[in-house]
Design brief:
Length: about 500
């Protein structure tokens, strides 16, 4: 008869179809047995020959099992004596197991009402977004190849060891070249700070520029995440009108004065959420006003990867010659979600100060991601991959135009966006958008509340199309019309 330990080992199940290596499957199951206390401290384990016989595996595999368990501290291997269950320092006593972790702190917090998440968890098959990419288009195998290639570069390890001292990184140099060639910038690597996202970029810049009661001007329809950042810093957020030509600069001139404004936040290429492009005249007026009145322009170019026009409107920052614009951009959205990288473009003195703030919270950054993105730019792969995705997303944009025209006809108005992955759709008749979202759920589609824009003067929704196939666009817009009819009954 087998010993109790051998019976436990013999009961281990090996899935030959699993992608997990056999030795890891066995080690994981033995780990669970030890955690449950079925193999107590100092229990002697069978030799690797016995394990290979009991489980019908190669002896080398059995050796790997024991080596894996020993490396994690579950067993101890003693030369000429065998393998034993090690003492488990993390083993829970009855007293500790009965304790409950506290649900609240014993001290007060500075709780914020500005940071409550507006996002809803979706339980439906389909969900409208405000302009996300389609994760199904990204090839994980290709991402894995890029990742492995980056780790094998000898130069990467040199940068890893010197990241504290040398932040004029390979990525900064490549990104600088990319922006100068493809987006009409004229900058040096010292004008760039790499961050993890556009939200982080905005937070850093806001920390630098804003104090309590600083006046920040945003559009009356604006990016809620940006407003949350400004409000959390106790800035005075005031709104200005936005129309088909973007922010109304004349409104600023007539209602404010020199030195009364600290910052104007804008999306010059495509306003969020309306997708309106700031007109050429208003661009010139805003730059002139910022220069004369001494305020900063924060240009958040959150979807710069997606430009459908042959000759897209350049960023406002490319027209700035007096250091009034701080540009926040992203790169890598078209490649793979894990590669999306934020960055700031600004005069050197601001970048130097922002770097000091950034290093307090993220000294190292994501060096592997930076290496991959830099290589993809250097090899021309970034440009090729982005253009390939653009063709596909443009087809989906046109499919959205056709679906809206077919199902809503004259019930809505919208502009065909020159870029980005979302539409801003106005309903001609005011309807309760909350009720529309509820009706749409009956068709297995979610319309999150942060996409709804309803005031006395506006009834509109922002609908992303990038994450949907052409067939899904047709289906969801058809159901949106049915939900609309349900509300109108």
């Amino acid at each position: 008869m087998n010993s109790p330990v051998e019976n436990i080992i013999q009961s281990i199940y090996i899935d030959k179809q699993s992608k997990t290596a056999v030795y890891l499957q066995i080690a994981q199951q033995l780990t669970h047995v030890i955690q449950r206390g079925e193999l107590p401290f100092k229990t002697v384990l069978p030799g690797t020959r016995s394990v290979s016989r009991l489980l019908h595996i190669n002896r080398n595999t059995a050796v790997s099992v024991y080596e894996e368990l020993a490396s994690q501290g579950w067993i101890e291997i003693v030369a000429n004596k065998g393998a034993f269950i090690a003492y488990q320092k993390h083993k829970k006593t009855t007293e500790i197991a009965d304790k409950k972790y506290p649900s609240r702190t014993n001290f007060s917090l500075y709780e914020s009402s500005n940071l409550a998440s507006p996002y809803d968890k979706s339980t439906t098959t389909y969900t409208f977004t405000d302009g996300q990419t389609d994760i199904r288009l990204h090839q994980s195998k290709q991402y894995s190849q890029w990742y492995n290639a980056a780790l094998q570069r000898a130069s990467f390890f040199n940068r890893w060891n010197n990241y504290v001292y040398d932040r004029v990184s390979f990525l900064k140099v490549q990104l600088c070249n990319y922006l100068n060639v493809h987006q009409q910038f004229s900058i040096q690597p010292t004008n760039i700070l790499i961050t993890r996202s556009s939200e982080m970029s905005l937070y850093l810049i806001s920390q630098l520029l804003l104090k309590p009661k600083s006046v920040v001007l945003v559009a009356d329809l604006s990016n809620f995440k940006a407003n949350m950042i400004f409000s959390q810093l106790e800035a005075k957020v005031e709104t200005i009108p936005v129309d088909d030509m973007g922010l109304n600069i004349d409104y600023i001139k007539h209602n404010y004065s020199k030195n009364s404004i600290r910052m104007v936040y804008c999306n010059a290429r495509r306003h969020y959420p309306t997708t309106a492009t700031l007109s050429e005249k208003r661009r010139k007026d805003l730059l002139k006003l910022a220069r004369e009145w001494n305020f900063a322009i924060i240009e958040d170019d959150f979807d710069s990867d997606f430009q459908f026009d042959t000759f897209p409107k350049p960023a406002l920052a490319t027209q700035d010659t007096h250091g009034t614009v701080v540009y926040l951009g992203t790169i890598g959205k078209a490649l793979f979600p894990a590669l999306e990288t934020g960055f700031i473009v600004a005069p050197e003195n601001l970048i130097a100060e922002a770097k000091n703030y950034y290093q307090m919270i993220d000294l190292q950054g994501d060096l592997v991601k930076e290496q991959i993105v830099a290589e993809l730019i250097h090899q021309g792969e970034m440009y090729r991959q982005t253009n390939k995705k653009l063709l596909l997303y443009k087809e989906r944009r046109d499919a959205m135009v056709s679906a809206l025209a077919k199902h809503f006809k004259s019930l809505v108005t919208f502009h065909i966006p020159s870029g980005g992955l979302a539409f801003f759709i106005h309903f001609k008749k005011h309807i309760p958008l909350g009720a529309l979202a509820q009706k749409l759920k009956l068709y297995d589609i979610s319309l999150p509340k942060h996409l709804l824009y309803q005031t006395k003067s506006i009834c509109a929704i922002r609908l992303g199309f990038g994450h949907l196939t052409i067939e899904e666009i047709s289906f969801t817009i058809e159901k949106l019309r049915k939900a609309y009819d349900d509300v109108m009954e």
